[in-house]
Amino acid sequence: QVHLVESGGGLVHPGGSLTLSCTASGDKLGLYSLRWFRQVPGKSRVVVASISSFTNTTHYADSVKDRFTMSMDNDKNTMSLQMTSLKPDDTAVYYCVAVHPSTLSSFWGQGTQVTVSS
């Protein structure tokens, strides 16, 4: 099974940029469907970006479209979420997730805090 470790969170001013990284071990990340979720205290986790293992296409939530870019590096076995034009509403704990296409088992990173504030 795959093990995920996230990095790159922090404090950023509104309008700023931040890139989150998720490093995988134990299996090839390219075999999985990949997702980035975020969660605000008191609310459910919501998916903000995803890459399908079947179609290799990327999808974004309307709230982050044209501001966030999700990518994967097969050589480094990592996935990233590049975030630009950040807003206070983007403040959340962000999680990377790998979903096995056959078993549908999901594997989560530990989460990283992103705070957008002046």
Poorly predicted ranges? none
Number of helices: 0
Please trace the helix and strand order, writing H or E for each element: EEEEEEEEEEE
Radius of gyration: 14 Å
Mean pLDDT: 95
Could you estimate the helical fraction of the residues in percent? under 10%
End-to-end Cα distance: 40 Å
- Strand content of the residues, in percent? over 45%
User: What is the overall shape?
Assistant: globular
The secondary structure category is: mainly beta
The tally of strands reads 11
Main sheet makeup: 7 strands, mixed
Structure overview:
It is a single chain. With 118 residues, this protein is an all-beta fold. It contains no helices and 11 strands. The protein has strands at 3-7, 10-12, 18-25, 33-39, 46-51, 58-60, 68-73, 78-83, 92-99, 106-108, 112-116. Strands 2, 4, 5, 6, 9, 10 and 11 form a 7-stranded mixed sheet that branches. It has a 4-stranded antiparallel sheet with strand order 1-3-8-7, with no helix packed on it. The mean pLDDT is 95.
Please specify the SSE layout and strand pairing.
Elements: E1 3-7, E2 10-12, E3 18-25, E4 33-39, E5 46-51, E6 58-60, E7 68-73, E8 78-83, E9 92-99, E10 106-108, E11 112-116
Parallel strand pairs: 2-11
Antiparallel strand pairs: 1-3, 3-8, 4-5, 4-9, 5-6, 7-8, 9-10, 9-11
Can you describe this structure in just a few lines?
Helix content is 0%, strand content 51%.
